Each structure stands twice: as structure tokens, then as C-alpha cells.
Protein 1
Amino acid sequence: MRSLPTCYFLTAAVFGLSGMIWGIQMSASGDHTLAPAHGHLNLIGFVAMAVFGTYYALTPRAAAFRIAWVHYALTVLAVVIMVPGIAMAINGQGETAAKLGSIAALLSMGLFIYVVARNGVGAGFAASDALAPVPRPDHHPAE
Ligand code: HEM
Ligand code: HEM
């Protein structure tokens, strides 16, 4: 299984790419009606997830707890419920999904407060490993 920070960054990049394609589509069509949904796909999907991923990469001890995966799932859930929810609210199709997504987003940030308060930043991080030169995959040291 991929590491938690990798999952955060991969998901963030997929949300970010989708948000940018949506932004280009809005620009091209001249219809900016759904701009807040596009904005929050980028802001929570890309920005917040990348910030969380950075934190877990810097704090392996926090990433080792199962609650860190709960945090990841909750953040993904917030995005996939909230973004269509905002679009639905704008289109007059009801606000339930936007409200549920917002609650998931709040819980995700609340959980982040708990994780940071409990673990601090940097626990389990070996700066010497991070700064050491990484051999290229095709580089085979003398056998
Ligand atoms: C290819 C990249 C992007 C394109 C083409 C794009 C395009 C747009 C367009 C056309 C609007 C509507 C502007 C208006 O009506 O005033 C908009 C709004 C917005 N975009 Fe983007 N965008 C891009 C990337 C991003 C990124 C990376 C973020 C955040 C990290 C972002 C955040 C926002 C926000 C917050 C709004 C305002 C939403 C609101 O009015 O509530 N966008 N964007
Ligand atoms: C529970 C989570 C959130 C809720 C319920 C929420 C709600 C809202 C609402 C109702 C608006 C006004 C949309 C409109 O123009 O019609 C808005 C705009 C905006 N939000 Fe959020 N938001 C949330 C999280 C965030 C986060 C995490 C960020 C940044 C990382 C963010 C950044 C913005 C920005 C930049 C705008 C656009 C302001 C503008 O166009 O003047 N929001 N948000």
C-alpha cells in the first residue's frame, strides 16, 4: 500500500487537475455560475489536502496512527460531497449535500487540530534521511 503522504498528494493532484480543467471550461464557456464549487474543489481538494500531506510527510509518527487514515478518508469525503453539493445549491437543487459536505470538512479540520496537538510537528522525522541524495532508480552501485 502507498504511504499516507503519497495518497494525500496523489489525491490532491487529481482534485487540483480536475479543478483546473473545470476552471478552463468556465473561462471558455464564459459561464462562471459554478465558480464557488470550482473554488472549493481547488481549495479543500488541492490546497488543504496538500497541506495535510506535507504535515504527515514531516511527522511520520502522526502518519503511523490509524486515525490519520480516518482523517484522509474524511477529507476526501468532504470534497466529494461538498463540491457537487455547492453546485446543487447554486442550481436550486437543495442544500443538503452542501451542508453534509461542510460538516465533513469541519470534522476533517477538527481532527487535524487533534492530530497536531497530540503529535506536534516533526516527530519521527529523520532530516538526515530526507536530505541524503537518493540514487536514481537505474543507478546500480558497484556490485
Ligand atoms: C487552470 C487553472 C484555473 C482556471 C482556468 C480557473 C478559472 C476560474 C474562473 C473562470 C473563475 C470564475 C471567476 C469569476 O467569475 O470571478 C474562478 C474562480 C475561482 N477560482 Fe479558479 N481557476 C483555476 C485554478 C484555481 C486554483 C488552483 C484555485 C485555488 C487554489 C482556484 C480558486 C478559485 C476561487 C477561490 C474562485 C472564486 C470562487 C467564488 O467566486 O466563490 N482556481 N476560477
Ligand atoms: C466547511 C468548509 C467551508 C465552507 C462551508 C465554505 C463556505 C464558503 C461560502 C458560502 C463562500 C461564498 C461563496 C460565494 O461567493 O457564493 C465561500 C467563498 C470562499 N471560500 Fe470557502 N468555505 C469553506 C472552506 C474554505 C477553505 C478551506 C478555503 C481555503 C483554503 C476557503 C476559501 C474560500 C474563498 C477564497 C472564497 C471566495 C471568496 C470570494 O470570492 O470573494 N473556503 N466559502
Note: The pocket of protoporphyrin IX containing FE (ligand 2) is lined by residues 36, 39-40, 43-44, 47-48, 102, 105-106 (CB under 6 Å).
Protein 2
Amino acid sequence: MTCFFFELSLVNFSLFLQNYFSNMYMYNGIFFKTANFVSLCKVFMNINPLFNFTLNTIPNSVRNNSYCKYKYSSEVENAVNKQIESERNAAFTYLNMAVNFLHPSISYPGVGGYFMKMYEEELGHMKILINYQIIRGGTPILTFKDVDMIANSKITLLEAFNQALETEKKVTEQLENIIKTAEASEDYETADFITSKFLAEQMNAIHELSQHITKLNRLCDDMEALYQFDLKLSKEYPYSLKT
Ligand SMILES: [Fe+2]
């Protein structure tokens, strides 16, 4: 049954891929043109009534019929799904910054590598929450809305780090809300999971970003100092563009 839910999630994931592969979908590793993919889903729906789902939602009758749930309220399940979406949003915010600073016309490879590392971390968080949702009998809902991926070449290093700090603070607040929701329904497992797996890391991320912001505030627009700042980051977070 878990595999079944995961397969449905893969279908939702394909919606996201649509943005990047110009009207093509991927399902089980195979690319389909939009029209072909919809036809494929219709075929599945006819074969098996369980596949009677819209492309971006799983029917409540399927979601609520999870007999393996123990003290896992729909409020907590929804909060975890909201967090999955937030981690995805954070990941793509950082990917956007990484692409921007790695671009040859801007070329801060150290900062680009730093944000690429953050992008990968957020994807990791998203995966941890998806796994947790499945373990508790919930259904991960992967809603892939449009994310503005246009590189903002005018963003300064200071602005980028400030934006990252705000993102991390928002993510932390949402994590705290999951804990509150879980405690209200006596779901101590979720409260402990979020606290131990995520909160300490959030505090470290906020601390690290704050340090960078303090340094950047000191450097102002000194190009040589900014070069040195980037060089230091490139040693700590080397990133290769090799394909
Ligand atoms: Fe995160």
C-alpha cells in the first residue's frame, strides 16, 4: 500500500517536472508528452478504480482509510504536508540563488556553492518529512506550484543572505507550529521527531547566516573584500560545474 501511495506521489512529482521539460511528463522514468500522459492516466483509471484520482490530489476516501495511523491526526498530517511544501520552496529559493551567483556574468562561485549546498540540504529535509509521513500512515501530498526561477542578477550578496535568513526563520516558525499541533493531539512522537531532527539544525542555520550577514555588512561594497569572502566560501563549499 505504501508503494501505491508513493506511486501516486510520483505522478504529482511529474507535474513539477512539467515546468522544466516543456510540456513533458515523466512517470516511472519514462517521458511522456502531456497528451500521452493524460491518456496513460485515463487507462489506469479504467483498469483499476483505485486510480480514480485527479492529477494533483489523492481522494480523501483513500487518505482517511489508513488503518496504520496511531494518534496521527489529520491536523498534524496536514501540517507535515505544509512543511514538505515549505522545504521544497526553500530548496528552490536557494537553487535560484546558486544559479544566479554561479552564472559567469556574476561569478561568485563560493557563494553559489554555498547556496547549492543549502538547496541539497532542503531537498534532504523534504525527503525526511515524506518518509515520516509514510511511516505514520499519512499521505505525502506534493503540490508543485510555479516557483519564480528567473535569476535576479541585481541581488547583492547581502540581500541574498538576508533573504536566506528570513526563509530559515519562516521555516523554523512552521516547524514550531507542527510541534504545537502535535502536542495538542497528544502526538508526542511527531513533537519529538520535529524537535530532535530539525530544530537544532535550524538554530545552526540561523546562526551561520547571521554571521555571514554581519561580515557582509562590514564589507559593504569593497570589491576586493567581497572577492575574499567568496574565495573563503569556495574553499569551504567547493562546487564543480563539471557535467
Ligand atoms: Fe529545511
Note: The CA atoms of residues 41 and 54 lie 9 Å apart.
